[in-house]
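Training component of the fellowship. As part of building independent skills, the fellow (R.M.) carried out the full modelling exercise for a liganded target. The chosen ligand was magnesium ion. The inputs are recorded below so that the supervisory panel can assess the work.
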Amino acid sequence: MENHCITVENLQVNYHQQVALESVSVELPAGKITGIIGPNGSGKTTFLKAVLGIVTPATGIVRFFGEELDKVRQQVAYVPQRESVDWDFPISVYDVVSMGRLNPKRWWQRVAAEDLRIIQDALAQVSLTELQHRQIGQLSGGQQQRVFLARALAQQASLIVMDEPFVGVDVASQDSILKVLQTLRDEGKSIVIVHHDLSTVANYFDYVVLLNNKLVAAGDTKVMLKPETLAKAYGHSLLFQSTSES
Ligand SMILES: Nc1ncnc2c1ncn2[C@@H]1O[C@H](COP(=O)(O)OP(=O)(O)O)[C@@H](O)[C@H]1O
Ligand SMILES: [Mg+2]
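Fellow's submitted model of the complex:
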């Protein structure tokens, strides 16, 4: 069994001659919760989008469980950054979650009874059963984030990739999202999360990748949280801050 959920070799992304991501090579472990960490503008979203083929990299080879994305697309669920979603779109919670059951190869088929059960299970897991008929714009930030997590659950993917799922989200929703992710991890699924808040890294992640427009470091959370490593990614102001607080 392949023990990396994502393998990236020499991934480079330029936006109009400007380098957003410089030659990143990294392997993300399968069966763990990995955090992609870095300050704003450090290329975290770009990294996810390039890995998933949403933006075209200048160079790079990406493998999912050792395969090309096209071969395993159904196994990969992507939850975009909340601010990139059009929340005015007239679609209900249920509709969004049911998209997790759409198979692009048989999109014309109606949802089967088995699918209905999976959709309701996913809604229940994130405590949104009661709100399933509500328009997605009529939800709090935390509820909106849970809708997209439920869609990923309904897809029954082996790998769930989320971009800043804890931003603009109430503490109760943060806890519930984290619990769901930990349960999935304990079932053997792989989770990759883009995150910028260093103070919660130790609680959330098993493995950490530090980005600052290039790879700064990657490793188990305990090793990675050393001040020297963090200072390299975030600059010395943060190192100063964290030592003055302790
Ligand atoms: N579509 C785009 N066109 C041009 N520049 C972009 C685009 N998307 C991101 N950038 C730039 O690339 C850099 C990395 O952005 P991004 O990946 O969104 O960082 P992060 O998610 O870490 O905040 C930033 O300087 C940003 O301004
Ligand atoms: Mg981002």
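The panel noted the following from the submitted structure. The first strand starts at residue 4 and ends at 15. The chain has ten helices and nine strands.
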